[in-house]
Amino acid sequence: MGLSALINGTVMTMNGAVIEKGTILWQDKKIVAVGEKLDLPAGAEIMDIAGKTVIPGMIDAHTHLGILEEIYQVEGDDLNEFTEPVTPQLRALDAVNPFDVAFRDAVSGGVTTVMTGPGSANVIGGTSLVMKTAGENYQEMIVLPEAGLKVAFGENPKRVYSEQKKMPVTRMGIAALLRQALTDAQDYQTKKEKAPQTEEVLERDLGLENLVLVLNRQLPLRAHVHRADDIVTAIRVADEFGLELVIEHGTEAHKIIPELVKRNIPVVVGPTLSGRSKVELAGMTWKTAALLSKADITVALTTDHSVIPIQYLPICAALAVKYGMKEEEALKAITLYPARILKLEERLGSLEKGKDADMVVMSGHPLDWRTQVEKVFIDGRLVYNGI
C-alpha cells in the first residue's frame, strides 16, 4: 500500500493536541506522521478535508456485536450457554457472525474497534475478543482472540438458574461458584506443574486452562456488575486471588470510588442511554461517568450493543458531558481509554506515529448531534465514504 494523506482538517489526536489544518500521513496500515505543514512525499494519495474534523476510530469496550443480532433474534442469538452456570471454556471467537448488519452500523458511526463477548446469564460466561469492525475477512478483523474472561454478579445469574432450580439462586451462590472455580484452577495448575516430574498424564480441561490464565494475570476478569455491594464482592474475590479486574456497567460504581481508586480498577460505564429495565438499574445516572472521571479513574463508555445501537456511542459521550464529564475526557472515554482498558493503547485510541491508521472524518465536532460521519478508515483502508 502506498503513502496516503489527509490534509487541512482539524486533527483531534487524543494525546493532548488539537492541530488546526493538520496532516495525517499513513502507509501499510500504520500512521507515519501527524502534524502541521508536513512535507508530503511525491506520489502520495492526498485527500483534502478542509473544514472537517478527524478523530481516532472510536472504540466500544463492551458489546455483544455479532453474537446477539438485532434482526435474527432466535437464529442470531448465541449470547448465553444457559445449560451450566460455570462455562469458562467458551470463546466468543466461535460465536461472532461477521456478517451481522451491526458491523455496517458500527462503521457508519465511526466505531472501528469493539470488544464483544458472552452475556451475563452465567457466573462465568467465557472469553471475549477484540476485533475491528471491518476487514478483508474475519481473521483480519481480529485484534485479540481472547481479551478477558466474563463473569457476572447480581440478578442475571440468579434469575436464569432460579428458573432451572439449580445453583446459584442467591448472591452467596454466585460468589461461591466463582471461588470454587478459581480454587479448582489453582489445584489444576499445581498438578500441571508437577506432571513432568511424576510422569503423570494430565487430563486437559479447557475451562481450567482459561482460569489459570486469569490466576496468572494473563487474562483480566471482566465483571458484569451493577450494584455497589456486588462491585465490592467482585473486588473481594479479585483481592483474594490476586486477579486483574475490570468493572463493566458499574451503575453504582460512584458509591465506592475510594475502593476503585485504591486498586486502580477501570470501569466501563453503561449502557446509560436506556431505560431502567431491572431493579439493579434504579440508581442509573449519567453522573456516574463524570464522578469516576473526576476521581481520575479510567473510564470508558459503552453502548452494550445491542442494548443501545453501536452507532450511538458518541451520543453517549455527549450526554456524559451534559451531566458533568469534561469534554476531552468524554472523547477519550470512547477512544484512548477503552484502548487502555483493552491493553491496546500502543496500537489504538489516538492519532500518533506508529499506531493503526483507524481514522474518522466528521463534518463537525464529534459530540455535536448534528455532526455527520463522512469517511472512515480502518487499517488505512477506506471502509465508509458517506451515507
How would you describe the overall organization of this protein?
There is one protein chain. With 387 residues, the chain is of the alpha/beta class. The protein folds into two domains: 1-56 and 350-387, Urease, subunit C, domain 1; 58-348, TIM Barrel (Alpha-Beta Barrel). The protein is 28% helix and 25% strand. It has helices at 101-108, 138-141, 155-163, 171-198, 206-215, 228-241, 257-263, 287-294, 313-322, 327-332, 336-341; strands at 4-12, 18-27, 30-36, 45-48, 53-56, 58-63, 111-116, 124-132, 142-152, 221-225, 245-249, 267-269, 299-301, 359-362, 373-378, 381-384. Strands 1, 2, 3, 4, 5, 14, 15 and 16 form an eight-stranded mixed β-sheet that branches. It has an eight-stranded mixed β-sheet with strand order 6-7-8-9-10-11-12-13. The chain is globular and about 65 Å long. The two termini are 26 Å apart. The mean pLDDT is 96.
The CATH superfamily of the largest domain appears as Metal-dependent hydrolases
- Count the domains: 2
Backbone structural class: alpha/beta
Average pLDDT works out at 96
The ordered string of helix (H) and strand (E) elements is EEEEEEHEEHEHHHEHEHEHEHHHEEE
- Strand residue percentage: 15-25%
Low-confidence residue ranges? none
Q: What is the assembly state of the chains in this entry?
A: single chain
